[in-house]
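SAMPLE LOG
Freezer: B-3
Tube label: C17
Construct: single chain, 434 aa
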Amino acid sequence: MADRTTKRRVCVIGAGAAGLCAARHLAENLNFEVNLYEQTNDIGGIWLYKEGTGLDENGLPIHTSMYRNLRTNLPAKIMNFPDYPEMDVVEPCCVSHEEVRNYLENYAEHFDLRKHIQFNTRVKAVRLETSSENEEKWIVRIQNMKTKGEQELAYNALMVCNGHYFDPYLPTIAGIETYPGTIMHSRSYRKPEQFSGKTVFILGASSSGIDIGIDLADHVPRVYLSHNNERLGGILPRNVIQVMGVERIDGNEILLKDRTSVTADAFIFCTGYRYSFPFLDENCGIHVDNNYVTPLYKHLINIDHPTMCIVGVPTIVLPFPMFDCQVRYFVALLEKRTTLPPRAVMLEDSKLKTVKIRHAHRLMDKQWEYNDSLADAGGFDRLPKLYRLGYEAWSSQRKINFVSYKRAKFLYDKVAETVELVVPNFVTINNTDR
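STRUCTURE (predicted):
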């Protein structure tokens, strides 16, 4: 058994799903001492719903981007961490944010994680120091949010788990300063009643744009869903109208890229978020360019300083299962149960491989190969087939039925390895292992 003097000290930043997963796999290992720092007073990260917006009691931006009526846009059964499949929900397959938050609370209790967490503790700065023996240490400056006292501590490894749904991205729109209506980012949206009777313009038609548009539909006369992608083919409420992207704004008139225009009482940016690691010193070696984080091997490991990782960078994935794979792989590296490839191989892996730089970390269908590669290299079991089968069945259903897919019945036959999504009063989509 390793004593305290020989244990490797690991700092984890953030007690959302990724940070809890990191603590879970570190805490069970006698080779590590883990400290998890959370700037709020509870676990959950973005899943910790707050009705208020703006700043919290400590003067920091309220972290959550949840709104009151939000239901997950993924079936709960495929959101589970693989070692804690307690969201065993069949119908409706997509659950409320409260249910996910309760799941994370139960996960933390089951693995006895709270004793490793320092709440109301903000990580203000992280810098790298190298000893004369060429040993790297992560110097972490923390601040107690109640007393405002600060201290610095040294760690052998660093796991950044602060998420990437808290720093809103607001594209520049010519003339928006002349717009007289309500302007907000989806991060500040909480409930549809505040828009009752108003026409609402939503910029962006990814998950949040579509979901908020549907949430508003019963309370407003019209929602304009603005985007530059191919026209969505799925079923939307009749008063949710797809329009082109915005060219400019002139007072209450919103001029579109197809030279038409509309008017609206409120403008909601559903334009996503920026990756932000404001506590990292430049000498940590991490750079962010339009949401392209470099230099990362496997979208995870700091290539120049591989005792540091950033968990949760990839998007359009099953997040919780992916966190589990990423964390277990990093722990295997720290324990030297696996090794990294040559630097040239890692740099090649980290190169931009998408047309748009902001899509650098989108995995989508590549997530299965990615997760498997982490499992194989780290020497642990691959994710069960349920995850891929369920994701593919869900993806097919969502494309054609935005309104009802969250109410679907999720049927998994473990013996036959098939998943069936049955949507009320609609079609059935089947998916089987190929």
